[in-house]
Each structure stands twice: as structure tokens, then as C-alpha cells.
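Batch manifest, entry 17 of 40.
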Amino acid sequence: MTQLLRSTLGLTAAIAVLWAGELRAHTIVVLSSDTLTATLRTISGAKSVVAADHPEAVFYSHVLNDDPKVRQFQFDSVRRRNPDVILTVGSFATQLVKGNFPNTPAVFSSVMYPVISGFVKSMNAPGGNITGASLTIAADIQFKYFRRIIPSLKTIGVLYSQNTAPLIPSSTVVAADQGFRLVAIQINNELELSSALDSLIRTCD
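Output type: C-alpha cells
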């Protein structure tokens, strides 16, 4: 199932629960982190699917600004609209919505590792007012494609943070099962990045 389909299904499922039996016009605010083609397709797909079942729904879109002061104006604008649902595209937008709109139902899309990121308790039981579609690709699928692209590949390097550290043990096991050696280096700050990359270049394929 594609990310676009997962996102639109997640949004329509949430709306079906929230708007059951209601006939009034509803407001959906879309908050994204960029204007990449994939982002625009996700937003367009969500609008099309929702409009098919809820033609009365009204959408307002904002691309979140890098300047915190400008973002605050954007948040104020969202609050004035008092949306029924906020659709987020990307981890940055999702994090900001979770922190600034805790009482407004939100549906996220294009998010990597939403559980580890703290957005939801689990994908099956998200908890709170937030749910969505994960962009996470299972480790075994990633390694299979590595093998397909580079048949001679033996050693794979990965940089990880404290937040993604729980993924490393299981990924190491999956890599070994498929004949790979995973070299993992934890990065605690930007200053460690250069030396870590140099190390991986020396030891990995």
C-alpha cells in the first residue's frame, strides 16, 4: 500500500468516526513542512478522497515557516479557524501540532517511526487525539533492496541517534540473517558527524 493511500485512508477513517451523523460543514487544516512533489500529492489525494464523501468539507493549507515568530502567526490563524481535524505532512509538522494543538484531532502522514518519535503509543492503539500513517519501511525489505541493487554488498554502515537506538539491535539481527554486517555508530551531536562518516567510509562497502 502506497504512502498516499495509507494517508488518505487514515484521514477518511478518522473523519468517519468524528463526523458520524453530522451534516454541518467541517474544517480541515493541512500543515506541511515543505512543498515537495510527494507532499503536494499527499495533500491533493487527501482532499480528493475526503471531498468524495464530504463535499461540504473546507480545507485550509499552511506550509510551516522556519521562523518561530512567523509560525506563531500561522498557529494563531489555525486556532481562529477552530478546525475539526488537522492533517500533518512530515515529522516536523506533526511534532509541532502535537505540542501546540493537543485538544484538536490530528492525522499525520509521511512520518518515519512515529512510535519512537513519541507521536503515538503504538500504531494499533495510538492514544490521545492523534493517529496516522507511518512511512517506516521494515528493515528486512530495506536489506533485500540493498542486495538487489548491489549484489556484492557485505558491510552496511548506519548512523543513529538516541531516539533511533532501539532499532539497531533488531536491524543488526535482520542484516546478519541476510548475509550483511551492520556497522552502527551513534551520533550525539553535530560535531561527531564528520568523524563518524569518515569511520564508516573506511569500514563499509
